Predict the 3D structure of the following.
Amino acid sequence: MSILGRKIEQGILGDCLDSAQAEFVVVYGRRRVGKTYLVREYFNNEFAFFATGINEVNMKEQLDYFNDSLIEYGFEEKKAPGSWREAFNRLKELLMCPDIKRDPITGKRVVFLDELPWMDTAKSGFKTALEHFWNSWGASQKDLLLIVCGSATSWIIQNVLGDHGGLYNRITRQIHLYPFSLRECEEFLQSKGFSLSRRDITDCYMVFGGIPYYLNLLNRRYSMVQNIDALLFQENGQLYYEYDRLFSSLYRNPKKHMEIIKALAKKSKGMTRTELIRDTKIADGGLLSKTIDELEQCGFIRIYKNYMKKEKEQYYQLIDPFVLFYQNFRVKKEYSSWTKYYGTPGYYSWRGNAFEILCLNHLPQIKAALGISGVETMEYSWRSSSAKKGAQIDLLIDRMDNVINVCEMKYSTEPFEIDAAYEEDLLHKLDVFQRETKNKKTLHLTLVSASGLERNKHSNIVINVITGDELFG
């Protein structure tokens, strides 16, 4: 077993093996995040049965592939089943064989069904057959561990985790697999023989977003700039067409999802629902809500509240680094090479926004650096509604211990220096925030800076400084 990180997830799988009851585990998450790899590596590919759904094939072909797996694991009938009900009956028969493969320590029969959403083709009866298999037999088998997996996160949530029919309250464990953190990216790249500075790893995260599959494509003989060019800007690059493949694999009708992503990519600080409707021309209603929910479930966007505002004034912000990068530099097709763009004023503008997104994806590390991991908090953004001179705070950490961390996020290669103009701007933000919100809590101005803070006569306004190294915590 060679799994980097994922300690919590490995613990869950270990608990399932040790359990004295039948276990039904759901593993889900964004495409390329390593779901299949985690399960295969943890169990060393030693399953009582394994099958995977195939994208864009009909029910008959799905059953043919499922039958191939049945035969591979010892089922003698060669003719493919005519329905999913028959397929699961055969699986039950196979699992009851006395010589079926079991975990060598616990004796569990481990069944892994990968890419479950692809098996559920239109009018196939797949979900009903799965429900019947589990409820009529599987749930009573104390030595059975069923693991289902899928990249189509919205399908998993709606049809399995959120099901109100036959699978309601049947799932015993769930694993939502997220992209690597900066620390996990560092460990992964070191295991591949890379010798990169933390600045390079930070730049890498701001493009590839901690997705293990993308990181695995990097060439250690290239600089990070050369790797980005080779993978994303050259037509034979392995990620040149990844954007379209990403959405088509997750959603059966991705047009609306991609329209929302396109609109959000233009507004780095996020948009309200009203603004989204205006820019995308998608009508307000259930379809818009469903599409937004599906994007959030897959981790592409975050939904956050404007401090002291009503729920209807929520904001939606694109927070997937890879999608943000692709929208800025590949969809527009204005740049033929990352090498030519690197170091230009436009590059530094993108980098500032990308670093803010990185920080939002590392809130646990920020809280740990502040020493408040155990303190209950809520995270907000805030926009002034009345100040003549606009004021905005991208991250507020509202703490139960009567403090609010007002966070500024800056990426520079040298310690960040606060000058008189910026100090005045910060004081203005704090003043307007307190006046408009009538907030009584103590405000701690917090700087998250990749290279720390240059101390001078203007820097005393900052209470807490979180460095780039601390984001690797």
Observations:
- The first helix runs from residue 7 to 18.
- The chain has four domains: 7-176, 182-240+328-351, 244-319, 363-472.
- The domain at 244-319 is CATH 1.10.10.10 (Arc Repressor Mutant, subunit A).
